[in-house]
Structures are given as structure tokens and as C-alpha cells.
Design brief:
The complex is a heterodimer of chains A (427) and B (198). In chain A, 15% of the residues lie in helices and 29% in strands. Chain A has 427 residues and is α+β, with helices and mostly antiparallel strands. Chain A folds into 2 domains: 218 residues, Sulfite Oxidase, Chain A, domain 2; 123 residues, Immunoglobulin-like, CATH 2.60.40.650. The chains are: A alpha+beta (427), B alpha+beta (198). Chains A and B meet through β3, β4, α7, β12 and β14 of A and β1, α1, α4, β4 and β5 of B. β23 of chain A pairs antiparallel with β5 of chain B, so a sheet runs across the interface.
Chain lengths: 427, 198
């Protein structure tokens, strides 16, 4: 490949950079052929490489670092035909390239209804009004004087997998399952703020409102607000990203992502729900009967194999194969994940590795010895409440095909003998 | 100022609450004083809304359809509009005033929003008189056709939610499993990693 024909010797910075770029292709080719060593040896070993000879960048080159340029393909992607406009739209976390349970901030999927609001935290205000003893206004400085909590939570869009209700449609877990992220949130328990204002005894509901151009609003029952909701200003240790609600967002653990109001500016206490657009026209689940469920808040037990998957084919041939995936439940922790390689006829228990935290992503693995035959891969999560992830057909028989939201059905990947993987449905 | 444990924050001024608290409930709580007729709403709609939502609420391109679709909710492709799906008129007023026109939110006067709401009722055949006037006085008496077809989450009644049932581990399906649908056939996924989704 290019690296073998390129003349050796001193290089300018520009040509070295060029080499690094072409090296990405060469590296991929080498990686797939690690078993085949030439008699003279692997030139990547027998020849002195540039990075072994020339100096690298100094510590002042990147005050805020970025991923290696060889990871440039690990990015959020969108599907333009899904929405009328990229401003009220969605993009997808590249789950197929990630591991562990924490999503890097720059890769957390985005869902806006009026684009990304850009707000100077010095100009941000949070108001609490309605059925309270004292309506209050907080600055960001005020909010940072309350006691804090750190919690790891997944945030899953209610519509994650929504395009798959009618059948296999998008070819990759980034697109079928990537409206999710999981980070460490730092913030103030919502109940501290509500107690500061003093909720009246008839205050049973909370309306959360954003400061962006969609002025997003959702009604939340007071029990949830006083239970585990957070008003967060940090994610994975640093300030929220602008597209994730900087400087302030609501965390509603285990519940559909739409309720995690970004750019949070107001909390109103009331005695009834408000039935706002995002809880009537949207985020209601139409059933085959023509009637619709509302207030479907919890995100049910779910899982997906992230590798192999359509964007992460098997390129190494037969032998040891790591099946890696994610499982989560809005009801608690994941107790068990089963994996099938024959389309759900037979199952074996996978290994959960890493932290097992309530309402957070869990990482599972099943290490197999692939014989090179066709596989129909599935994963099935079970949470600590005893709920078992259903099949898509079980969901369809209960709900029809027009619910849009809350598709937690079991995903099937077909791995063919070449290692190519496809999103399929099975009998 | 507060009675809370921390004494943080300050009392919200009435003018501040009035500026931000513009939400409306189905019972009419939160409605501002004002009024507007179907005939008043038509030119506002044509000027500010029709470019995206179509002259008759039919939706331009992939922009939302606002009218029609009655009796489509049990069909294979339901059309969920204000007239066919939305339960409450309060949501129309609230959302239009809060977030529309897309890209120029909060630009309409309260009377404009009453008039537009009246016009949307007309486009959806909920009212048929162009002189119909919607106001804070009669607002809560207007009902949308699909109001009664929503119910609170009852997913737990579905059979697959049965707790503690040990799922099948072996020989769970009678014969070899067959592929019944393939995403590749549809071919609607954006192309490989390198492209910019053009």
C-alpha cells in the first residue's frame, strides 16, 4: 500500500501529515492481515517508522484535545429524510464504535426542536412559580451553592428505534438505537429547589420549560420531581455542551428523553397536567385501536448488540469473536443479558462488565469462537424488576405499528459467512 | 427571601412571572384576554404559516400537516392533525404563541393567536362560520373531536410485562429461524462513514 512505496527519509511536517492520512487506509489493510507475515518481517516492525524518529506535537498544541485523526469516522450522523429540517431534528450516537458505558460528550446524540440555544450563563435565569409559597428566581451562581449529586444516567429519546416499528429499515445500530447517551451528571436535586420555594399541598404537577426557540414544555408528576430528578450543569465532569442544554438541563432518570428539558429556565407547580404539544400531539403512542396512550414516561428494559453490527462487520475471519453490547432499563439495573446466535432458538447468558448502576447503560460481552457460518445475533435484557425485553412481534401484537415511540423490541443482526452484517427481522 | 433551608434565590417579580408564564391548560387557565375571528386569521395564516403548512393546512413538503386526516387513526398510515388527533384546543393556542412561526417565535400578538386558532378550527371543519370569533370567554367551550381517545399509560397490562417469568433458554422455536425482512432491501441508510450525509 502507500506506506510501503513512500520514500523514506526526512519529511516536512506537511508530508508527514499526508503520510498519516494515507496511513489510515494502510493501517486498516495491515490490521486485517495480521496473520500473514512476510519472510523478511513486517516492515512496520523491521523499518524505523516516522513516529519513532521525528518529534511529535508539544503540550501546547491542543489546550482542549480532540480524538486521534484516525478516529475521524466516529461521529454523530443524521438521516436527512427523517425530518423536514435539521433544526427540529435528530442525530445519532455512534454506538457501534464505543465501548464501556460512558458516552463522550462530543458524541452524545442531539435532539432539538428549535436548534441549539446559545446562552451566556451569566444571563441565564431559572424561575420557580405557580403553586409555591414564594416564587423564586435563581442565577447559575445561586444554583452552584446548593449541595450537589453525581449520577450516571442514560438519556434515551422516546423515538429511539421508532423507524423500525414496521420492519427492518436502517442498517446500523447507530441509526436503529443511537438516540441514546449515558454520562455522569452533576447537579442539584430538584427537590432542594422546590423546597426552597415551598410547594403548596395541592401542587401535584410540575411544568418544566426551556429557554430555546421551541420553549419546550413537559408536565411531570410531583412524586417524580421530588424523587430522583436533577437540575444538572455538568456532564462527564465539564459544563454541559451547548447542544445538551448549556448552562442548565433537567435530568428525569429512566424517563423518555423529551422530558429532560434543556436550557431549563422555568419550573411551574400546578394541580393538573398542562397537556402541552409535546405530551399530546407528540410523545403519545397511537395504538391499533385508534386510541392513544399518553404519559408513557418510563423507558422500558432494552438492549442491542453494538458489535458485530452492520457498521461493525467481522473483518478478522473465523475464531475468537467478541460480541459486545449495551443494555438498560428505566426501571432500575440490568440483572442479566442473554445472547442468541441462532435467531432466538437458543440463548446463553452474557457477561456484564463494568459498573451496574440504576437507569444507566450496562456493557455486556459474549466471547465466542466463530466457525464462519451464518449467525442471527440477538440480545435480551432482564432488569432487576424482573421485566424481560420483548420481541418486536410481541410489541406489535399489543400495539400495532403506529406507536412511533417506545420500541424496545429485540434486535436481530444477520452475520453472513463473509462477516457482513445486516439489520433483519426473523420468524 | 424564601422559606427554604438555604435562603438562595430571590423573589420573582410579578412582571417577570407574567413575561415567562404563558402556558395554557385545557380548562383555559392561563389564557390572556383577547379575541379573533376565522376571517381575521386567514390573512395571518397566509402570511406567516402557509409557506410551510400549506394553504389549507395540508403541509408543504415534509412540514407538519395541520388539518384533515379525520377517521385515519386506524389506517395503515394515520394522519395525525389538530382535527384528527389533538385532544385540546389549549395546546394549539399555547404552542403557536410559544414556538411559531418556526424561526420567529413569540412574534404574534395574543389577538393574532386567537384569530389563527379560530382559522385552524375552520380548516379542520370544527367551525364552519367565517365570522366565528374565538376569545378567552368562549375558548374552553370548544372541544376537539379526538379528546376522549387518550388514556393514561397502561403498558403494564400487556402480556409481555408479566414479571418474573423465566424466559425460554433452549429450543425456543420449532425449526430453523427464517429472515422475514431486510434493511438492505429498503436501502435508505445514509452511505458509508466518510461521506457528509449529502
Amino acid at each position: 500500500m502507500v506506506s510501503e512505496t513512500e520514500p523514506k527519509g526526512p519529511k516536512t511536517a506537511a508530508s508527514r501529515r499526508n503520510f498519516l492520512k494515507t496511513g489510515l487506509m494502510a493501517g486498516a489493510a495491515v490490521a486485517t492481515g495480521t496473520g500473514v507475515a512476510k519472510a523478511a518481517g513486517d516492515p512496520l516492525i523491521t523499518e524505523i517508522q516516522d513516529w519513532n524518529r521525528y518529534l511529535g506535537e508539544g503540550v501546547d498544541a491542543a489546550p482542549y484535545g480532540s480524538p486521534s485523526e484516525f478516529e475521524a469516522h466516529v461521529v454523530r450522523r443524521n438521516v436527512p429524510w427523517l425530518t423536514a429540517d435539521p433544526v427540529s431534528s435528530i442525530n445519532f450516537t455512534p454506538l457501534h464504535e464505543l465501548d464501556g458505558i460512558i458516552t463522550p460528550n462530543g458524541l452524545c446524540f442531539e435532539r432539538h426542536h428549535g436548534g441549539t440555544a446559545v446562552i451566556n450563563p451569566a444571563e441565564h435565569r431559572l424561575m420557580i412559580n405557580g403553586l409555591v409559597d414564594t416564587p423564586l428566581v435563581f442565577t447559575m451562581e445561586d444554583l452552584k451553592r446548593f449541595p450537589r449529586e453525581n449520577r450516571v444516567y442514560f438519556l434515551e429519546c422516546a423515538a429511539n428505534g421508532g423507524m423500525e416499528w414496521r420492519g427492518a429499515q436502517l442498517n446500523g445500530c447507530q441509526f436503529t438505537h443511537g438516540m441514546i447517551h449515558c454520562v455522569v451528571y452533576t447537579g442539584v436535586p430538584l427537590r432542594y429547589l422546590l423546597e426552597e420555594a415551598g410547594v403548596k399541598t395541592n401542587g401535584k404537577w410540575l411544568l418544566a420549560e426551556g429557554a430555546d426557540a421551541s420553549a419546550m414544555t413537559r408536565s411531570i408528576p410531583m412524586e417524580k420531581a421530588l424523587d430522583d430528578c436533577l437540575v444538572a450543569f455538568k456532564m462527564n465532569g465539564e459544563a454541559l455542551r451547548a447542544e445538551q442544554g448549556y448552562p442548565l438541563r433537567l435530568c428525569v432518570p429512566g424517563w423518555e428523553g423529551n422530558m429532560w428539558v434543556k436550557w431549563l429556565r422555568r419550573l411551574e407547580v400546578g394541580d393538573e397536567p398542562w397537556h402541552q404539544r409535546e405530551e399530546t400531539s407528540k410523545y403519545t403512542d397511537l395504538l391499533a385501536s385508534g386510541k392513544a396512550r399518553r404519559h408513557t414516561w418510563v423507558m422500558d428494559v432494552k438492549s442491542v448488540i453494538t458489535s458485530p453490527s452492520p457498521q461493525a462487520p467481522v473483518t478478522h475471519g473465523k475464531g475468537p469473536l467478541v460480541i459486545s453490547g449495551l443494555a438498560w432499563s428505566g426501571d432500575g439495573t440490568i440483572k442479566r443479558v442473554d445472547v442468541s446466535i441462532d435467531g432466538g432458538r437458543n440463548w446463553q447468558q452474557a457477561r456484564i462488565d463494568g459498573p451496574s448502576l440504576p437507569k444507566a447503560l450496562h456493557r455486556f460481552y459474549l466471547d465466542i469462537n466463530w466457525d464462519g457460518s451464518d449467525l442471527l445475533l440477538q440480545s435480551r435484557a432482564i432488569d432487576d424488576q424482573g421485566f424481560v425485553q420483548p420481541t418486536k412481534n410481541e410489541l406489535r401484537s399489543a400495539r400495532g405499528e403506529n406507536s412511533i415511540y417506545h420500541n424496545n423490541g429485540i434486535q436481530t443482526w444477520h452475520v453472513n459467512t463473509d462477516g457482513v452484517v445486516e439489520n433483519v427481522e426473523v420468524s | 427571601p424564601s422559606k427554604g433551608a438555604f435562603g438562595l434565590g430571590r423573589v420573582a417579580m410579578p412582571a417577570e412571572v407574567a413575561a415567562w408564564d404563558i402556558d395554557i391548560r385545557p380548562d383555559g387557565m392561563g389564557l390572556p384576554a383577547g379575541k379573533g375571528t376565522v376571517a381575521d386569521g386567514e390573512p395571518i395564516y397566509t402570511e406567516a404559516c402557509a409557506v410551510c403548512h400549506g394553504d389549507f393546512g395540508e403541509g408543504a413538503g415534509r412540514w407538519p400537516v395541520l388539518a384533515g386526516g379525520q377517521d385515519s387513526l386506524t389506517r395503515e398510515r394515520p394522519e395525525k392533525t389538530i382535527g384528527s388527533y389533538w385532544p385540546y384546543l389549549s395546546t394549539v393556542f399555547d404552542y403557536v404563541r410559544r414556538a411559531m412561526p418556526f424561526g420567529d417565535a413569540r412574534s404574534l400578538s395574543d389577538d393574532d393567536v386567537y384569530a389563527l386558532t379560530a382559522y385552524l378550527l375552520y380548516l379542520n371543519d370544527v367551525v364552519d362560520d367565517e365570522e366565528f370569533e374565538l376569545s378567552n370567554e368562549n375558548f374552553a367551550s370548544v372541544r376537539l373531536p379526538n379528546e376522549t381517545n387518550f388514556f393514561d399509560d397502561n403498558r403494564m397490562d400487556e402480556p409481555h410485562y408479566a414479571k418474573g417469568v423465566e424466559p425460554c433458554m433452549s429450543d425456543c422455536k420449532p425449526g430453523p429461524v427464517e429472515i422475514t425482512a431486510r434493511a438492505q432491501v429498503l436501502d435508505v441508510t445514509p452511505e458509508g462513514e466518510g461521506d457528509e450525509n449529502t
